[in-house]
Amino acid sequence: MPKQIILNAFETNAPGFTPPGQWTNPRDRAVNYLDIEHWADLARLLERGKFDGVFIADVLGNLDIYGGNADAAIRSGGWTPCNDPMMLVPVMAAVTKHLGFGITGNLSYEQPYMFARRISTLDHLTKGRLGWNIVTGYLDSAAKACGLPAQLPHAERYEAAEEYMSIMYQLWEASWEDGAVIRDRERKIYALPEKVHKISHAGRYYKLEAIHRSEPSIQRTPVLYQAGSSGEGRAFAARHCECIFVSGQSKSGARAITEDLRRLAAEAGRNPGDLKVVVDGLTVLGETSAEVQEKLAEHSRYLLPEGSLAMISAATGNDLAKHGLDTPLSFVKNESNNSTAEGLTKRNEGVVWTPRKIAEHLHSGRGAIFAGTPAQVADEMEDWIDSTGVDGFNLSRGISFATFDDVVNMLVPELQRRGRYKLDYAKGSLRQKLMGHGGPRLPKDHPAQGYRR
Predict the structure, then answer these.
(1) Strand ranges, E, within 178-295
(2) Angle at 337 between CA 334 and CA 330, to 5 degrees
């Protein structure tokens, strides 16, 4: 049986994302991002197309690397302004039954006790459809906004993340035993105190002494996502995460990352098959080649190059305003998002990225572009799946909602006809839907197992 393809919608709670500038297109609906109906309508559309989930990206701090300030991001609407992604989940969950939600939460600036409760609450409200995209941040402006002089060094952020995860597993997995909640109306006992435990932690970065404020949710620990492909990011993902997003600049780069992630997972004692790898991409679909070319031209017409440069400068910590437009980029390890920089320089399959190329690229240099008829795009996606070992695609909004409309109405039926895409949702939690086996909770070979009572 051919491998089933995972499809996520790549969104953010902002008017502008990737490709930057599409909000200026009269057909684009992203300017309605402040309206609750906007997100309810999007959720209904995605569930109609049997999307596995909506992955909501987020970044704290100002995109203020390009030109030494945030002006380009503000002018272009490039991920600026940007609202809280978590607030969207109840709205979208209320109008769907199966769609999963991957929300981004920056552990560097989230107090563990409070964050654990918010996640448990959302897992309850969605009936087990929640995932957490674990990020450590990459902007000094975020640290300063939270009262710190600067962010921790890149490697040290992952050290702090390891300690953070140990606290989260204790709160989610160990504080309340199975069977603690009995809701006994006759005896007037909601929960058994002897089965509820205080968590005590005193480490280098965090201290905590508390009972988890929420009773166990369906998944207890949400599905764990991560988008870092740097050395430290891969090692962290292989130990903890279940779904990893990688940039799609090249098939060879995606294949190398996928193989390395699964090797590291096996070395950590986990089932490598439990790591789902998803590639960033943008679809431009048409019934004819002429229609595809018209839509590509439409995307380019509304592209705002300075928005792309502001986003990539922030992600890489490299001010592209200081480079000549045709100067090839080189990798410089710093305290920012090293995986983005590596993708543009080390895993680029011979493509020479320059500021000009990034400014003109519809996907800001981050991902693959799947442009063609439904059959052509399906062919290319199948080749990615079969030749790289990845499991699916994180599809950018492109023109909101037009891009996802085309995926739902044109691409999904083609993939279903080929046996590459589900005809209906599987039952169970988000974890069960993605993995295709097991229960709603993390498997026994996951490090969270060591914290369970």
Answers:
(1) 181-184, 189-191, 199-202, 207-210, 223-226, 243-246, 276-285
(2) 60
CATH 3.20.20.30 fits 6-154+163-172+214-305+367-451, yes or no: yes
d(Cα 322, Cα 137) in Å, to the nearest integer?
Answer: 23
Is residue 299 within 8 Å of 352, Cβ to Cβ?
Answer: no
Distance, in Å, from the CA atom of 290 to the CA atom of 399, rounded to the nearest integer, reads: 18
State how far the Cα of 240 lies from the Cα of 224, in Å rounded to an integer.
7
Distances (CA, A) of 211 to 206, 215, 243: 16, 10, 29
pLDDT given for residue 334 in this prediction: 77
Q: How far apart are CA 242 and CA 262, in angstroms?
A: 11
What pTM, to 2 d.p., does this model score? 0.95
Give pLDDT tens digits for 145-172.
999 999 999 899 999 999 999 999 999 9
What residue type is 231 in one-letter code?
A: G
| Residues sharing a CB contact under 8 Å with residue 366, sequence separation 6 or more, in sequence order | 18, 247, 248, 249, 280, 312, 340, 343
Q: Could you read off the pLDDT of 263-311 as tens digits, one per residue? A: 999 999 999 999 999 999 999 999 999 999 999 999 999 999 999 999 9
Rounded distance, CA 235 to CA 221, Å? 20
